[in-house]
Structure formats: structure tokens, C-alpha cells
Amino acid sequence: MRFDEAYSGNVFIKSHPSYEESKAVIYGMPMDWTVSFRPGSRFGPARIREVSLGLEEYSPYLDKHLEEVKYFDAGDIPLPFGNPQRSLDLIEEYVGQLLDAGKFPVGLGGEHLCTWPVFKAIHKKYPDFAVIHIDAHADLREEYEGEPLSHSTPIRKVCGLIGPENVYSFGIRSGMREEFQYAKESGMYMAKFDVAAPLKEVLPKLAGRNVYVTIDIDVLDPAHAPGTGTAEAGGISSKELLEAITMIANSDINVVGADIVEVAPAYDPSEQTQIAASKFLREILLGWVK
Description:
Layout lengths: L23 E6 L14 H8 L6 E2 L4 E2 L5 E6 L7 H17 L3 E6 L5 H11 L4 E5 L19 H9 L4 E6 L4 H10 L2 E4 L3 H7 L7 E7 L21 H12 L4 E8 L10 H17 L2
Parallel strand pairs: 1-4, 1-5, 5-10, 6-7, 6-9, 7-8, 9-10
Antiparallel strand pairs: 2-3
Helix pairs in contact: 1-8, 2-3, 3-4, 7-8
Protein name: Agmatinase
Pfam family, one: Arginase
Keywords: Hydrolase, Metal-binding
């Protein structure tokens, strides 16, 4: 797949015209083939780009400007509609090529199953990596109604890949009893309900490590982000998630990639969900791309 050609659609604000000169690459994973409630997250990546035109290029949180980091928006991966396994294979191949080229991958979803092939690609490059998972849902099921390829399974899958002791989940407030039991008994870290306070305690323990960060937009309360497929009441605010992103930026961990998933624009005519995701992406680019 080609990375060095300019994307013909809307790009994220201040996207650099050169792939070769860019440190980070934004790519979309427009897939919602396995969702269990409301589809539509395949339209998230495009809309996050479009609303970024309303963003300020300066971040008062990090005192940085988007001109200070070079990133290339490669557009969306062309995924075969309705074919989960082939889609996952293409994502893994795509991200693997980015990593081989020394790029920092920034994915836009799409359903959360999209992160599973990214985990596999990261593991090949950084076999010692850890995961920071920010989400409303545990995503620790082994299958959903008999289907192992489900948006409710990626964190259980990565526990099997790198060991549950290397997985840190925050903001969790939904899941089966068995998922919470697994988290408790397996040795993984799970902070229920909150993000910023427990993250502050965990980050020193991850100092010096390679870490991949995956953010499901439904960690936010539906009042802040109604545009998602499986909204869960009782979530955090946009302010708290921005605080968490800033804490990660100011920590001693080595972030090796990130994604924002599950933005479904059709359910938020106010556009506050996609606008929030766009702002989070700005902070990720400014704070995590070294």
C-alpha cells in the first residue's frame, strides 16, 4: 500500500504534505463490521478530520503549536466491507509498514476490534510493550454470541499476547461479571469509573517502557460524547480525558503509537463528539510524538 501519495479527501488540520519528512502518520480504520448495537463508527475517521478545521493550532495545555510536529494524514485504509478477518489483516500489514519506516502510528476508528491487529503489529516491533486502555467497556470477552472477532474482545486478546500484567485499563464501568473477575484474578490493572487519578499513580510504574495507548471515545459520559455506538452513562468529562492525555505527555513513558476509536457521527448532530475527538488528537500529536 502506498503511503507517500497525498490523500484526496479532507485531511487533519496542518497535515504535512510529505510522508517522508513526517514523524507521525494519521490513518483511518473505517470498519464497524462486528458492532453489537449501533453501527456507524466507520464514518468517524473522515468526520474527525473534517471538524478539525475549527480547531486552534495552539494547545494551551502543552504550550505547543501544531507547526512544531510533522505528521502526515494518509487517509483511510481501504477495507473490504463486511469482511472482518481480511480487514484486520490489512490493518496489521499497514501499521507494520509504518513501524518499519520509523513512523509513529495514530489510528482513527472504527470499532475497537480495529486495535487488535495494531497490537499485533506493535508487538512485532516492541515485544516488551505495555498497553494503556481508556474505555467505558472492559472488552475482555473471549467471544460475543459465539464470535471471537468482536469489538468486545480486543483487550482480552492483547492480554493473551503480552500477558495481562502488562495491560492497564482505566474508566471501565461496563462488562460481564466474568470480565471483572478475569481482570481481578489475572493480574491486569483495572481502574473502574475514573481515569486521571489512577493514571497518575500508574504512570511512574511504567517509566521507561514502550507503551501503546488506545482510547475509546465512549469513556466519556454520553453528555459529552453521544456520538458513539454503545454509550454508557456515568462516564468522565472531556476535561478529565484532556488531563489524562497531558499527564501521559509529561510522563517518562515512551508512547509508541495510539488510536481513538468508536466515534459514530450519525448519533451526534451537535458534533460535540467528533469535535472532542479532534481536540484529543491534537493533544496526542503535540504531546506523545517525540
